[in-house]
Amino acid sequence: MDSTRFDEKFHGVLFDLDGVLTPTALIHMRAWKEMFNEELARHEGQAPYTDEDYFAHVDGKPRYDGVRDFLASRGITLPEGDPSDGPDAQTICGLGNRKNDLFNTVLTRDGIAPYTGSARWVGLLHERALPMAVVSSSRNAAAVLKAAGMSDDFPVLVDGNRAKAENLAGKPAPDTYLRGAELLGVPAHQCVVVEDAVSGVRAGAAGGFAMVLGVNRGVGADRLLQAGADRVVDDLDEMAEEMA
């Protein structure tokens, strides 16, 4: 960072949610692992699903894309099905809906709190009147923001529901982030994208944004930089310290 104040250099901030603002990635990872291992047990000779599988094939992607890409990595093909499929359906959509049910069960039972450093930086950005949006592949983003007490901080939410309704391509395409900037009324080249997933960093890098800030929650700083991040921090408290 140069000596120019963050809120003078940039005019909007577009946050991913899971793993950036809230540790919902841990809930997602548990739900994915339970769902996929149940499915893999149906297929002879398959090794268990691992956290590496999550980062390689699922992290940051729309739910059905994550199901499809992971199964493809194991040579498993299922019918696409329909988003209305029940969680017991042996389809891409059915498995995705099963994972969603597991996620909601854990979220309702345990709740969620934002990362301390993330909440601190969001508070400082709010004080400086910097427009902010959440851009998430999740269809549960509104529920997560509400559970974390952050709904009022983000008047703009581009989530999986809006992406489907508006036919926006998911990450690593930049479409959802570009839509977030449009709804904020800030040109993309004046906005910062904040991401912890390789697919999300690639989306930011492809969209012509002013800066892509990577947050290393386990993917690895090198992988985020290789994907196109301009800078990587381990926690957003580092950004708060620079603005305090």
Molecular structure report:
- It comes from Cutibacterium equinum.
- Its EC number is 5.4.2.6.
- The protein is α/β, with parallel strands linked by helices and 244 residues long.
- The protein folds into 2 domains: 6-23 and 112-243, Rossmann fold (3-Layer(aba) Sandwich), CATH 3.40.50.1000; 26-110, DNA polymerase, domain 1 (Orthogonal Bundle).
- 48% of the residues lie in helices and 10% in strands.
- The chain has 12 helices and 6 strands.
- The protein has helices at 6-9, 24-40, 51-58, 63-73, 92-110, 116-127, 141-147, 160-165, 175-184, 198-206, 221-227, 237-243; strands spanning 12-15, 132-135, 156-158, 191-195, 211-215, 231-233.
- A 6-stranded parallel beta sheet has the order 3-2-1-4-5-6.
- Helix 2 crosses helix 5 (92-110), helix 4 (63-73) crosses helix 5 (92-110) and helix 6 runs parallel beside helix 12.
Structural class: alpha/beta
Series of H and E elements = HEHHHHHEHEHHEHEHEH
According to CATH, the fold-level topology of the largest domain is Rossmann fold
End-to-end CA span: 14 Å
Number of helices: 12
Shape type: globular
Helix content: 40-55%
**What is the C-alpha radius of gyration, as a whole number of Å?**
18 Å
CATH architecture of the largest domain: 3-Layer(aba) Sandwich
Physical arrangement of strands within the biggest beta sheet = 3-2-1-4-5-6
Beta-strand level of the residues, as a percent range? 5-15%
* CATH secondary-structure class of the largest domain: Alpha Beta
Organism: Cutibacterium equinum
Protein name: Beta-phosphoglucomutase
Keywords: Carbohydrate metabolism, Hydrolase, Isomerase, Magnesium, Metal-binding, Phosphoprotein
Family: Belongs to the HAD-like hydrolase superfamily. CbbY/CbbZ/Gph/YieH family.
